[in-house]
Amino acid sequence: MMRFNKISRYAVLGSFASLCLFGGCTKKPSQEELARLEEARAAAESAEKKLAELRRERMALEDQLSQKQAELQRHEEERDDLQQKMNNHEM
Hints:
Blueprint: H1 2-23, H2 31-90
């Protein structure tokens, strides 16, 4: 049992050591890759700003639509009242 614990402990330590040694050996990004990354970040930021602008515009248009629908409702009710009065007056 003790032997298994020592073996597993050494295996974990060995895995950790190899991860530390080989994990730092990655290639550094080139200037071109950094420039493309910056372009992508700028494009994403621009797209997010455009999305926020379009959402504000949509909310304003939905508000206008709601107002126009309420106005239409009032005019239709007024029309119906006038028609009813005309029909009652003709009798």
